[in-house]
Design a protein that fits this description.
By secondary structure, the chain is mainly alpha-helical. The protein has helices at 5-15, 36-56, 75-79, 81-87, 96-109, 114-121, 125-130, 146-155, 157-164, and strands at 26-29, 32-35, 66-68, 71-73, 187-188, 194-195. It contains 9 helices and 6 strands; from the N terminus they run H-E-E-H-E-E-H-H-H-H-H-H-H-E-E.
Length: 206
């Protein structure tokens, strides 16, 4: 089932109970000033969409991104961030597959800085290509382009596999998830399989 980007955004916001990830701290980059939390939320959406496409071959939500200078954004989320932040409601019921995916995604990426998220999300060739355009109508990204889907499957293969090993209800420290270097939990052995650190080597409820 495909959802709305606003519903996914509300879900992410509901997980930030102490309001540290999605905040109203102002930051500036490329001559633009914006809320750091707004940037993080849109990068979460961008990466979640791409990784979901890589894993399942279908989008997590219907809305398309705009390729702006500082990253891909969903306009409804970007422009309504302050309102969403104040409400922090999550009334949507996701199917089991989506709920599990979102929990694992959040556990995997919640310790990443905005700069780390930017570095990873800016590797998206669809964003690179569309951000060159000046007209807003030409900046609309097509993440389901067959060529992009094939790229995402290869580009996010390691992350998809590492996320598969996570317990969706366990919190992980950034010690084992270094997004900036893509040193994810454990390591890949000679057979190409990921091996978890000993302390995580248990029966996961996945």
């Amino acid at each position: 089932m495909t959802y709305k980007a606003l519903d996914i955004a509300k879900w992410f916001l509901s997980k930030d109970v102490d309001k540290t990830l999605f905040n109203k701290e102002l930051t500036s980059k490329n001559g633009r000033t914006f809320y750091e939390g707004n940037a993080r939320l849109n990068k979460f959406l961008h990466l979640a969409q791409n990784i979901h496409i890589a894993k399942y071959g279908k989008p997590l939500f219907n809305e398309r991104f705009y390729a702006y200078d500082n990253g891909a954004v969903v306009e409804d989320v970007r422009t309504n961030y302050a309102v969403l932040l104040n409400k922090k409601e999550n009334n949507i019921a996701f199917d089991e597959e989506t709920e599990k995916f979102l929990n694992k995604f959040f556990s995997f990426f919640k310790n990443a800085s905005v700069d780390e998220l930017s570095e990873l999300s800016h590797e998206d060739n669809e964003w690179k290509e569309k951000t060159k355009n000046f007209r807003k109508s030409d900046q609309i990204m097509d993440s389901m382009n067959p060529a992009r889907v094939a790229e995402y499957k290869e580009q996010y293969e390691d992350i998809v596999e590492a996320m598969e090993q996570l317990n969706p209800h366990t919190s992980y420290s950034s010690e084992y998830i270094d997004i900036s270097r893509l040193d994810v939990i454990g390591y890949r052995n000679e057979d190409g399989n990921y091996i978890l650190p000993k302390e995580y080597d248990e029966d996961w409820d996945t």
